[in-house]
Amino acid sequence: xxxxxxxxxxxxxxxxxxxxxxxxxxxxxxxxxxxxxxxxxxxxxxxxxxxxxxxxxxxxxxxxxxxxxxxxxxxxxxxxxxxxxxxxxxxxxxxxxxxxxxxxxxxxxxxxxxxxxxxxxxxxxxxxxxxxxxxxxxxxxxxxxxxxxxxxxxxxxxxxxxxxxxxxxxxxxxxxxxxxxxxxxxxxxxxxxxxxxxxxxxxxxxxxxxxxxxxxxxxxxxxxxxxxxxxxxxxxxxxxxxxxxxxxxxxxxxx
Length: 255
Ligand code: NI
What we know:
binds nickel (II) ion, 8-stranded parallel β-sheet, single chain
């Protein structure tokens, strides 16, 4: 039984066949998934999906790439949605220095506002980090994000950064890249971090794991991520699956 902690079934890529995609996920043992919304359109669609499917939960937040578009009323909307029974986290939020649509200072401000909101509504947060290790860690510390904790999503950082995030009460989640042959660093971190802080995800439709690299990703492939990490940690697939699922349920408060 698996828990995929980060899916974008709300993306256009799944518009035609979400039903089949869900079926394939259930067939390989995926029990729960968190559909992550990050702007007006994807949040709206995530909420439609969690209403339609019992085994889906939602996270709502604002993506750093689009930080320039977030208004105060968006933030109020996210606050309202946090009270929805199937919304289990805020995010994804964070910093993305790869794309330059939103200036760094705007990204930081939008990130800080969402952390403060999470503390207000007492919800874990899902962090998107691209090329921004130090600033992410600094802001998490300055804002006291350890009070709510959450997930470093699709983690690609060093063991040193992972350790700082663990100290800040965060879980580390691995996706498709941990299965790539040349992915030395994620493999190292996935092998070493404490089992009770480990999570798995697909981030579908992006970043499909080996041997499906380059194709559209889907939740069923989270099994490939679990198999890879079990192998790295020299433990059984079943043990890894149970542990990561329990971690996710506990973090999201799902009984
Ligand atoms: Ni994502």
